[in-house]
């Protein structure tokens, strides 16, 4: 899936020339926590969020620095702090370094961008213009769209066991100790030994995700440390 498949196309945005009061009203009215800031040509020039508007002199929430911070503060830093808490222009409080992506970006690429830059939403641009936005909520909707909505034909226990075994054998965390898979009525029983608790959990989750598995009884046991030391 790509950005164009999941993005919200009906975009709420604000003009770079608008005021912080316009931004606050827009955020509340649209029930969103952030919106893209665009210029007159609809090019994205920033993002303004609730966090950009909560430290304000008007409501007495401007950050207070202790005496040491004030002593070490530069004139430029003090001026920046004053502008951020007293300006009435969106352009002065918005985040200017905007992470964007194109409509053909994959969902994997979008998630990697979000994690790398610590952002919750990615504006989608085409030819310099804003065409949509993908938020974490849009990714959750994409996940729900892949939820199985109809039962698949139930494979035989023999075929199901083979599918589980093949799935487990392909994993990099496959146990070096003996493990056994038994299937009865679509229920998988896992027996044997693994190196650690995380490996045991991984075995169970991998088996659960094999199509046709109705349940998993995980009897795998962690190999004692003394045994491993004897190798």
From TrEMBL:
Residues 156-224 form the BON domain. It holds the Pfam family CBS. Residues 7-63, 94-152 form the CBS domain. One of its GO terms (molecular function) is kinase activity. SUPFAM superfamilies: CBS-domain pair (SSF54631). SMART domains: CBS. Coiled coil: none annotated. CDD domains: CBS_pair_BON_assoc. The keyword Transferase applies. Keywords: CBS domain, Kinase, Transferase. This is Histidine kinase. The lineage of its organism: Bacteria, Pseudomonadati, Pseudomonadota, Alphaproteobacteria, Hyphomicrobiales.
């Amino acid at each position: 899936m790509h950005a164009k498949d999941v993005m919200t196309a009906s975009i709420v945005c604000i003009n770079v020339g608008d005021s912080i009061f316009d931004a606050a009203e827009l955020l509340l009215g649209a029930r969103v926590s952030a919106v893209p800031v665009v210029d007159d040509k609809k090019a994205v020039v920033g993002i303004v969020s609730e966090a950009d508007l909560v430290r304000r002199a008007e409501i007495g929430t401007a950050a207070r620095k202790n005496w040491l911070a004030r002593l070490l503060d530069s004139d430029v830093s003090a001026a920046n702090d004053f502008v951020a808490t007293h300006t009435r222009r969106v352009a002065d409080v918005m985040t200017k370094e905007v992470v964007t992506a194109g409509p053909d970006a994959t969902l994997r690429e979008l998630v990697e961008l979000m994690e790398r830059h610590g952002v919750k939403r990615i504006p989608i641009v085409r030819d310099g213009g804003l065409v949509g936005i993908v938020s974490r909520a849009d990714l959750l909707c994409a996940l729900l769209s892949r939820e199985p909505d109809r039962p698949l034909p139930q494979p035989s226990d023999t075929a199901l066991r083979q599918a589980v075994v093949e799935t487990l054998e392909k994993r990099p965390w496959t146990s070096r100790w003996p493990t056994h898979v038994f299937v009865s009525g679509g229920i998988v029983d896992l027996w044997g030994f693994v190196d650690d608790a995380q490996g045991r959990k991984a075995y169970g989750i991998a088996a659960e995700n094999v199509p046709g598995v109705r349940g998993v009884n995980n009897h795998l046991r962690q190999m004692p440390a003394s045994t491993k030391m004897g190798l």
